[in-house]
Amino acid sequence: MRVLGLLSGTSHDGIDVTVVDFDESDGALRGTVLHEDSVPYDPELRARLVAALPPAPTTLAEVCELDTLIGQAFAEVAATTSEAVGGVDAVCTHGQTVFHWVADGHALGTLQIGQPAWIAERVGAPVVSDVRIRDITAGGHGAPLVSFLDELLLRGRAGVSAAVNLGGIANMTVVGPDGLTAYDIGPANALVDAVVVAEGLDARGYDADAAIARTGTVDEVLLAELLADPYYAQPAPKSTGKEHFHLDYVRAHVDRVRPGIPPADLVRTLTELTVRTVAQDVRDAGIGFLAVSGGGCHNPLIMQGLRDALPEVEVVLADELGAPVDRKEAILFALIGWCTMNGVAAVTPGGTGAREPRILGTITPGAGPLRMPEPVDRVRSLTLR
After folding, report:
1. Using CA atoms, how far apart are residues 385 and 373, in angstroms rounded to an integer?
2. What whole-number distance in Å separates Cα of residue 185 and Cα of residue 238?
3. What's the CA gap between 322 and 319, in Å, rounded?
4. Which of 123, 281, 334, 350 has its CA 20 to 30 A from that of 264?
5. Prediction pTM value
6. Cα-flanking dihedrals φ and ψ of residue 362, to 5°?
7. Omega of the bond leading into 55 within 30 degrees of 0 (cis)
8. Distances 245 to 11, 151, 165 between C-alpha atoms, Å
9. What is the C-alpha separation between 38 and 117, in angstroms, rounded?
10. Can you tell me the distance from the alpha carbon of 208 to that of 300, in angstroms, rounded to the nearest whole number?
11. Could you give the CA distance from residue 148 to residue 174 in angstroms, rounded to a whole number?
């Protein structure tokens, strides 16, 4: 079964897409990656999306329009990709997260936009969407869903191993003799990106190759203030997002302890925040092997900072597990799509805090009647090539 996976992450800079051809036998799942790409959002659409995100006020009219416009953008990428590989059997879209509702340490709701009916209409294949909410209704956080893929890729390693994804938010899956835990650590690129955009430091909207951070120095007073955020001390499972870690959050801390800090020093300090929070959690978990993915992989200060802070840990890129660092989450959603179409629960309770595994998502039929394959009992292993 060929499944096309689509998402735009918490950096909301574009649409990642992959097509994976899955073959299953007695619970052993093999996936061949046929296509992978990343398509930037139209600048005007991205600007409208950014302007509507928390803590900015917005309207239901704007949410409705963005739901359609993002759905159409996803549909165009999906249709072009499907044509490039000669067609697909199903699509799984994550859409674009615009709000993740957490209160008193529990996720109560989540909203991803990008209307899937536009994708189904353009591609003609059934579309799996809205994949996080079912986990939340079962007591989970709806995140990090990537823990399901991570567990399959890390399974069988000796000792304690982990996978961390450095997107807008950093999340980590830990696999060891005592089972699996997964959670959102905190901001990875979200705060740096917000400052870069607000200060006009780079038209690309991020600190490419850590060029800005390299010219600054870490402000230890501000860093200590940021590290005192109660979120970091909360036990797993836990989840967070840009409704908590955003530009006004940074400005409030700066105004309190370091008004007038040079932008380069601020970017350097926020970069170090990612290194310190990730490294601390890796040490606390006794991890010996760490596979890193996401946009933060391309920041040399983050990667060198992690290696310097974790000399006893083997720090590698997720490519060594068969999941390309920039396409791992798109592969995840292709996997979730396959699981949903085949009746497999694609969530690990230890990863999200859910009481029990659940089959994820809602299915929008394609051009013809919806025909589901015979259900598969479970996935015992995954090999990617």
Report:
1. 23
2. 8
3. 5
4. 281
5. 0.90
6. -120, 140
7. yes
8. 12, 27, 17
9. 21
10. 10
11. 11
